[in-house]
Amino acid sequence: MLIRSRRAHDIATAEITPESTYLRRREILATALTGVATLAFGGARDARGATTPKPPELGPIIESPYSASEEPTSYDSVTQYNNFYEFGTAKEDPAVQAASFQPKPWSVLLKGRLKKPGSVPLETFLEGHALEERIYRFRCVETWSMVVPWVGIPLGDILKRFEPDEDAKFVEFRTLYDPERMPGQKRQTLEWPYREGLRMDEAMHPLTILAVGLYGRELPNQNGAPLRLIVPWKYGFKSIKSITEIRLRTRAPQTTWSEMAPNEYGFFANVNPEVDHPRWSQKRERRLGDFLRRPTSKFNGYADEVASLYAGMDLSKDY
Amino acid sequence: MSRTRWIGLGAWSLGLAPGLLLLIRLLGDQLGANPVEELTHESGRWALRLLLASLAVTPLRQQLGLAWLAPLRRTLGLLGFGYAALHLAVYAVLDQGLAWEFVLEDLSERPYIAAGFMSFVLLLPLAITSTRGWIRRLGRRWTRLHQLVYAAATAAVVHFVWLVKADLREPLAYASVLTALLAFRVLRAARKKLSVGTASA
Questions:
Q1: CB distance A281–B52 less than 8 Å?
Q2: How far apart are CA B23 and CA B7, in angstroms?
């Protein structure tokens, strides 16, 4: 039997670098370095990079008894910390990527169960309504919140002009779908176009507005120019931006987030500290500008006005 | 100073730079509209990056025959642990305001928080036993103990994947780097076993 003792300079087979790997060593190193560099710097973004000029001021604006008395969040925070996946998924993306978006000319397509359907230029759509300032709390499902001085018109007042049918029970809204103008739509992050919906009584509630501005000026692009929904007692994702289509329906529409993750986002999405998101607590929130979290209020503090809409419903099931 | 010392010094300085940058941005109010969130995300990202960089040292050393890379494994690992500790501290102190009932609720009810915390708990003994003294004292058991780093890195990546709402590109980038690093080790071990088997036959 031949017993071969291993000498110090012998190399185990496994330790020999295969020739193919040896020949590709520079390539392997380059790939690794590129990967490291991407991970290191890909996520870094300039939070204050976007300082586009402020939009023009809006005409006469009347005050509203529905306004909260809280101090509004700074203009910079309101316009540079946005969830608007059509313009990128990071908070600071929309301010940068929407900078060159042209919201005009704009028209709204009205269809479904109403007596005056059709495509209506935005100016006609808003004609005859007084602009109101509504200072509202805005609570995101991600647990941050703001106070925003919106400028808008009650949705119900506008809808009545187009004469909804008796059997119209829900309103569906759609965001513009145009990947050339909304670059985030080139990727399938969400099912485009973004869709949202309200029950008719929610849509007609005086707190529900279509906003065309904030801080006395036209809506900045990153905040949903030129026309967006604001439903202050619901999580922010209900307040759909850059609306091009409104459809009155007999049945509840599919909505984007609840379609994507039905166990996490419901159709109603009322702010509710008693019903946690499956992955995080909804009991507290961080108001932008604050250091510590504060308790979240049911219906975002609008319970007196809206709790009756949900009488008899189990809000842990209809979340 | 020897080459090893220079490399070590370079790694420490580069590794501490992102922390210093965060501090500068914090003091200059340059962390955006939600500074606590930015601190949380950035410290977490750097913990993950450095941990993965530490795991990349051995494959690079073996494939490229660069023995001098070896000490970087410890340096990068400790830096990664440092950012993980910062990440946890920012979460507990700044984000939760040391409200323990909420921290405990998070830990017991939110899988992504539990995964992140588990990653930290697994890294803790590795950081403690990273000194020469402990390596000597533990001997062969040190190597076995430090295999926990694979579990810690996996838990950290899972933590990231689970917290994202819709855009999975970034966490999946980390997941693919980790998968490649783990696959390298599995393949290498399998090949070693195979060649040992062939040699003894």
A1: no
A2: 25
Output Rg (C-alpha) for chain A, integer angstroms: 26
Reference B86, options B32, B41, B126; nearest CA is B41
Flag if B63 and A28 touch (Cβ within 8 Å).
Answer: yes
Supply A22's token pair.
Answer: 């040896």
A188 contact partners, CB below 8 Å, separation of at least 6: none
Cβ–Cβ contact A49 with B under 8 A: no
| pLDDT, tens digit (0-9, with 9 covering 90-100), for A119-153 | 999 999 999 999 999 999 999 999 999 999 999 99
Return the C-alpha torsion angle B23, B25, B31, B32, nearest 10. Answer: 170
Alpha carbon dihedral B122, B124, B130, B133, in 10-degree steps, equals -110
d(CA A108, CA A245): 5
Superfamily of domain A26-310: Oxidoreductase, molybdopterin-binding domain (3.90.420.10)
Nearest to B32 among A40, A92, A142 (CB): A92
Name the residue in chain A with its Cα closest to that of B21.
A44
Which residue type sits at B78? L
Looking at CA atoms only, how far is residue A128 from chain B in angstroms? 37
User: Nearest Cβ partner of B32 from A17, A21, A81?
Assistant: A81
Q: Is the ipTM of this complex over 0.90?
A: no
Q: Cβ atoms within 10 A of the Cβ of A91, count?
A: 21
